[in-house]
Amino acid sequence: MDTAIWWIRRDLRLSDNQALTKAISSANSVLPVFVLDPKLIDSPNSSPKRLAFLFKGLAELDVDLRMRGSKLVIRRGEPLEVLSRLVRESGAKQIFAEEDFTPYARKRDSQIASQLSLKLVGGSCVSHPKSLLKMDGTPYKVFTPYMRAWKAHYKFHSVLLAPLPEFILTPAEVTGDRLPGQPGLDVILLFEPGEKAANQKLQEFISSEIGGIYQYADSRNLMGVSGTAQISPYLRFGMLSARQCIYAAQEAMEGSTDEHARKSAETWLNELIWREFYFAILYHFPFVLRQSFRENLRAIPWRNETKEFSAWCDGRTGYPIVDAAMRQLAETGWMHNRGRMITASFLVKDLVIDWRWGERFFMQRLIDGDPAANNGGWQWTAGTGTDAAPYFRVFNPILQGKKFDPEGSFIKRWIPELAAVPVRLIHTPWEMDTKIQQQSGCIIGENYPPPIVDHGFARERILEIYNITKRNQQ
């Protein structure tokens, strides 16, 4: 029987799956395979919560496959060796996979394609990094012109979705390994894994009459409310496709009831295009995973004080909005996007700690940890990236807290020792007098730390450091 292998990597779904669709159209039977690659599973940047989400997502995918007469084959080992063995066992003529754009994935796939019939198709983003280039053939380095080019190319309904297969014939004789049960992976996840949960999350966001996509522009930065789609973990592992999300955004824009609602839906579309942009940046400039994109900011003399880094990691900086976001990450494996910007700015610009320390820490904990998006976000905040925030933009953690958590509900949720602090002092608890500290049950220096650094001083310090660094590189 003519067989094709569907090599699953970041596409744990059956709907709108270009690799699966191609495999079905190319052979009588399809063998769905996931390879537990030790270089990824056991990587120093691996996250226990992310692994738990992945493994539970694979289990859900297996259930979905069995409902269609198929099954998921799990194998552990080096991908070339595993796939070569599966080709011999199944007699498969071709291997289809969704293209991935990280440096490791590109090197791995190139090696495999030189020895096996590996066919890569689109899927992890809508626009292949090579498909949108400037008139001179060079890649975009600034988001706004990239976004304009992207929108001009992908007009409404030009993004078409692949159909959901009703039945998948799979060779019964090929078997696999069981999913590993590793210590630390039996965790409570904020996000329910699987394609069904992913689609439900997306539908709730685009159809909600209160909040949702039509109020996204107004509520996306408010940390104490559920104002974002919260689908990033599903996009990370392809439980939703980028095309499904883009299509939903375009549909919402076209079906909006007023201009404000349409603009709000477009704001969400723009965030999805940021993801596409960061994929393209990593593809064309893979060195960004090792160093700053901007050459004149590669020699910043970072302080890298380990005690201060530990305080940041533990959510004990003395700045409530920073600490609340870091504790949210520690408990859930996810952080509000505004929190990511605030905490990154504080680490880099208030503490003068190398952005790569924070980037690595996030990758080791985020359920949605993605090399392209994580790197892009950190370099944007540090001012070192291709299309970055100006180096002189330094987030004030007090003002950020007052603006994006005005009632302190987010802070009180994640820092229980501040729960009884009056709202007028929730962003500056060190300003409480002794009586209020006693009444609120929060003694500064005992129950909650004082600020690790004075923000005004820190701002002047980092601006001087950046200015000196830039002058020295001229």
How many domains make up the coordinates? 3
What characteristic shape results from the CA principal axes?
A: globular
H/E element string? EHEHHEHEHEHHHHHHHHHHHHHHH
CATH domain class name of the largest domain: Mainly Alpha
What class do helices, strands and sheet pairing give?
A: mainly alpha
Give the strand line-up of the largest sheet: 3-2-1-4-5
Name the CATH superfamily assignment of the largest domain: DNA Cyclobutane Dipyrimidine Photolyase, subunit A, domain 3
Output the keywords.
mainly alpha, Serine Threonine Protein Phosphatase 5, Tetratricopeptide repeat, single chain, Rossmann fold, 474 residues, 20 helices
Describe the protein.
This protein has helices at 18-26, 38-41, 48-66, 79-90, 103-113, 143-153, 195-207, 216-219, 232-236, 242-254, 259-284, 306-314, 320-332, 337-350, 355-363, 371-382, 397-404, 409-414, 434-440, 455-472, and strands at 3-8, 29-36, 73-76, 94-98, 118-121. It is mainly α. A 5-stranded parallel sheet has the order 3-2-1-4-5, with helices on both faces. Helix 11 crosses helix 16, helix 13 crosses helix 14 (337-350) and helix 15 (355-363) packs antiparallel against helix 16. The longest helix has 26 residues, at 259-284. The termini are far apart.
Helix-strand layout with pairing:
Layout: E1 3-8, H1 18-26, E2 29-36, H2 38-41, H3 48-66, E3 73-76, H4 79-90, E4 94-98, H5 103-113, E5 118-121, H6 143-153, H7 195-207, H8 216-219, H9 232-236, H10 242-254, H11 259-284, H12 306-314, H13 320-332, H14 337-350, H15 355-363, H16 371-382, H17 397-404, H18 409-414, H19 434-440, H20 455-472
Parallel strand pairs: 1-2, 1-4, 2-3, 4-5
Helix pairs in contact: 6-11, 10-11, 11-16, 13-14, 14-16, 15-16
